[in-house]
Every structure is written in structure tokens, then in C-alpha cells.
Fold this sequence. Notes:
- By secondary structure, the chain is mainly α.
- The protein is built from 1 helix and 2 strands.
- It has a domain at about 10-55.
- Helix content is about 20%, strand content about 5%.
- Strands 1-2 form a two-stranded antiparallel ribbon.
- It is elongated and about 45 Å long.
- The N and C termini lie far apart (about 50 Å).
- Bound molecules: iron/sulfur cluster.
- The site of iron/sulfur cluster has 12 residues, from loops.
Amino acid sequence: MQGWSCPHNINEICQIRNGKPCEPGYPGCILFGKMVFADPEHPSNKAFHEKRRQQRKTPASETETGAKKTDTD
Ligand code: SF4
């Protein structure tokens, strides 16, 4: 099994969070809001679920991937 290593982690320091220690899924991290972590209090979890809620409320025609309606449709 192969693990994942973040290209922004250099010696446990995050290169995109202003030199803060690597904290996967915390605000500023590329994983923030993109996945659910085992710790129910992890900040990424709330952001993840909020994003999902917003996606369910937004009609497909208003999303980036939704097909746009034209007068000729
Ligand atoms: S905090 Fe996130 S973006 Fe930064 S090094 Fe860690 S895993 Fe990568």
C-alpha cells in the first residue's frame, strides 16, 4: 500500500500556510473542506459538509460543471 505525501510539506513545515507546521486539513491546507477526518471535531469536516449542503442547494445550471441553457436549447 502506498501512502500520500504532500508536495508542500518540507521538513514538516507547510510551504503554503506561511511556514506553519503541517496540519493536514486545517484552514489554508489544500485538503481543507475536501475530506472528512476521523476526528469529529476536525475543522475540515464542518467545511466539507457545508460545501456539500451548498452544492445540493445550487441548481446544476449555476454550477461550474452544470450545462448552461441557451435560447436554442
Ligand atoms: S498543511 Fe496541508 S498543504 Fe500544508 S503541507 Fe500539510 S498537508 Fe500539505
